Amino acid sequence: MTNLFFAEAAEMMGFKNSTLAAALGWVLLATAPSLAPATEDHRVLSAFREVVAEPAKSTVQIFCDGYKAALGAVVDSNGYVVTKASELKGKIECQLHDGRKLEAVVVGRDPAVDLAVLKIDAKDLPVVAWSEGAVPAVGSWLATPGLLADPVSVGVLSVSPRKIAAPSGALGIQLANVDRPAQIEEVVPDSAADKAGLEAGDAILKVNGKEISGRQNLVETIRSFMPGEKVELVIDRDDTELTITATLGSLSQLFHGDRSEFQNALGGALSQRRAGFPSVIQHDSILTPAQCGGPLVDLDGKVVGINIARAGRVETYALTAPVVREVVKKLLETHHTSTAAGGKK
Amino acid sequence: MPGGVSCEFMNRPSVNKPGVWLMPSWISTARRWAAHAVVGCVLLGSSLATAAPMAAPETMPTSTATSASTAAASAASQHLSQILAGGSPSGVSDLRAMQDHFRKLSEQLLQCTVGVEVGAAQGSGVIISKDGYVLTAAHVAGQPKRDVVFKMADGRMFRGKTLGLNRTMDSGLMKIDGADDLPFAEIGVSTGLKEGQWCLATGHPGGYQSDRQPVLRLGRILLLQNLAITTDCTLVGGDSGGPLFDMQGKVIGINSRIANNLSANMHVPVGTFTDTWKRLTTAEAWGHYPGNEPYLGVAGDGDLPEAKITSVRPSSPAFKAGFQAGDIVLKLDDQDLTDFLSLTEAVAARQPGDKVKVLVQRGEETKELSVELGKKG
Q1: 91-110 in A: which are within 8 Å (CB) of B?
Q2: Which one of A42, A268, A294, B212 is at 20 to 30 Å from A231 when CA atoms are compared?
Q3: Inter-chain residue contact B215 with A255, CB threshold 8 Å
Q4: Could you tell me the pLDDT band of residue B242, with boundaries at 50, 70 and 90?
Q5: CA gap B366, B287 in Å, rounded
Q6: A47 vs B213: CB contact, 8 Å cut-off?
Q7: Chain A interface includes B302 (CB < 8 A)
Q8: How far is CA A227 from its chain centroid?
């Protein structure tokens, strides 16, 4: 890590590795903070005890093959728990607030939002209290309950709900600085565009049959595809129309050696699945990937969302309560229908 | 070192620029052109989304006219001030009071936080006057007099220029053109800050995104040093140049760099901007990024009334140029030197790689030496 760190810092500054090493060593030592960060400060966390007292009773700790894998929220008193789907694997167990540890089965998944509903053999469980109000304002306190008296983490609401797009496809072209047509000025070597045979000077007229009105339209169109998808491009090259098929790369692949990825990973692991959500609250609580999947509450202890991803050094995402409730409702209905039809208990 | 003050250039007041600069990934020179494909489009072809509607802040409890409740309100406000100055909340009512304060502040803080684009680089900044002076980081500005595009939280876009920058502190100034009624934050003072006091940081992590307002983070001051304020307001590339605010909403720092720890987020103390305001507004660029300090490789005696060399470091630029212990340096280029400090300053005013002519007196004769400055480290 250290070497990588030096190399990275040096590269950023445009210096050779050796020149920064001494300075960095000294500085890192010198800036070791004398005070605990707020989120690890017991005095700050304990102020939230009353806030998380009730929601903690509806929070479960999920184990996969014996390891803590996620948190979850009880959404139905008959033993149904919602959690983050992509963290689940192997033998699943839920530890309840009362200490019981019960085996769980997945009864529904929605990959579009990365939620799963689990069933445990328990009755009369306390169900989370959903917030019925509007999403709290930016700057509002948010707490992530665990099974203990203190919350797992606290933070403030950083950004009002927004969609987090799935990873974007990319061609790897630089466009000419005119609004229309969408004309290629330069092709990134080894990019999707390069492999497909696109050339500087080509104007892109159509993508999968859709007319392209100009450069912005092209950018948005390409980004709406996922990496790996094939697109058919109609281009104008020297007044001749050609059809070319390209397999899209990803934007992050285009910026391989990506500094933002490096920086985002400074200070802790990120969730594997951290994009492609219809509506999330962004907050600055520091969670590990294994602390996602559980409820996020306001100061009334009401659930405003389900933590769905540790997404970066500065950001944790929670799917908003309405999205979660809708998905849970749908998954439970499907489950009940199929169990009724299958005659299973 | 022979007694007295050792004024070797390597020992200039240390420049502690730790960690990783907070620029987004796509600004590295090697990939700069690739960035045009992405950033360029957003800038020139995008229909800027209007600011996402922010939830209305909860109304503060209105004070009644009775003196009893006024006294109670005053006591409550004093209690809140104590917490914000470095205390811990002790229960839900304290948390609510803090939250009301954060919400009210945040709304105005986001309005004066801007996304900045300088060439292919993206960073952040904060407006500190209604006519559009913007504080940022030196490594975001890069050079004086470059074109900048400013993107406000309300969706408005402005053009302007970079002004001065101090690489040693990582402070930079920019100016928005053609605006005279912008929302702005007041500059606070770096002195009087206390470790433990609560603070808020804003900026555009990962670069400006039209569907996202500036991103708010809460933290506390963990460490105060002359060259940096360290907080647990987490930062990442793109936040560079964005503001750190105190609980009065005044700018106390500028986001600069991070290290491999979530509580190692460093901000330029705002005092350096006020201290060097004239140089910044006149578009002067000075100082050196860490690891990029010019290096000659001689030591001298600072107490003497002449720039006398006491030792020459092996393999240093000075060594290669033929400097010898005992040489008295008379001139560096056309500049007369009066003591060792003046030599130190003359070298510090140049950049690594600069070729300089040095006039030295060696015994009875004077000699002109030609030296290419190296880098410290």
Answers
A1: none
A2: B212
A3: no
A4: very high
A5: 31
A6: no
A7: no
A8: 17
Closest to B132 in 3D by CA, of B163, B166, B165: B163
* DSSP single-letter state for residue B368: E
- Average pLDDT of chain B is 83
User: How far is it, in rounded angstroms, from Cα B227 to Cα A82?
Assistant: 47
Residues B111-157: tens digit of each pLDDT: 999 999 998 788 999 999 999 999 999 999 999 999 999 999 999 99
A 179-238 → B contacts, CB under 8 A: 179, 186, 188, 214-216, 219
Does B263 sit within 8 Å of A33, measured CB to CB? yes
Tell the residue number behind the tokens 């470091």, with chain if given. B313
Q: What is the mean pLDDT of residues A80-104?
A: 97
Residue B96 host element (H or E): helix B92-111
What is the rounded distance in angstroms from the CA atom of residue B213 to the CA atom of residue A229?
Answer: 31
Contact B148/A at CB under 8 A: no
Smallest CA–CA distance, residue B170 to chain A, in Å, is: 12
pLDDT score recorded for residue A52? 98
* A31 or B10, greater pLDDT: A31
Give the minimum alpha-carbon distance from B218 to chain A in angstroms, rounded to a whole number: 7
Q: Can you tell me the mean pLDDT for B20-24?
A: 56
Count, in order, helices (H) and strands (E) of chain B: 9, 22
Answer yes or no: are the C-beta atoms of A156 and A274 closer than 8 Å: no
Look up the pTM and report it: 0.76
Is the model's pLDDT at A143 over the cut of 90? yes
Tracing tokens 């750190």 back to the chain, one arrives at B244
Q: Contact, A146 vs A56, CB < 8 A?
A: yes
Model pLDDT for residues B45-72, shown as the tens digit of each residue:
122 222 222 333 333 334 444 567 788 8
Rounded CA gap, A44 and A51, in Å? 12
Which of B219, B199, B202, B215 minimizes the C-alpha distance to B264?
A: B219
Residue B148 in contact with residue B118, Cβ under 8 Å?
yes
DSSP label of B54: P
pLDDT tens, residue by residue, A15-55: 222 222 222 322 333 344 456 777 678 899 999 999 999 99
Per-residue pLDDT of A190-204, as tens digits, reads: 889 999 999 999 999
Nearest CA to B173 out of B288, B284, B17, B43 is that of: B284
Distance CA A20, CA A28 (A): 12
The answer to whether B353 and B373 have CB atoms below 8 angstroms apart is yes
- Is the distance from CB of A145 to CB of A55 less than 8 angstroms? yes
Return the number of CB contacts < 8 Å for A and B.
277
Q: Give me B43's structure tokens.
A: 């800038």
**CA angle (B278 as vertex; B273, B280 as ends), nearest 5:** 55
Q: What is the ipTM of this complex?
A: 0.76
Identify which of B34, B57, B377 has the shortest CB distance to residue A19. B377
Contact list, A266 vs chain B (CB under 8 Å):
20, 236, 258-261
3-state DSSP call for residue A185?
Answer: strand
Nearest CB among B17, B34, B98 relative to A254 is that of B34
Distance CA B205, CA A11 (A): 20
Residues of B whose CB is below 8 A from A214: 45
- Contact status, residue B286 vs residue B275, Cβ threshold 8 Å: no
Of B198, B220, B266, the CB nearest to A31: B266
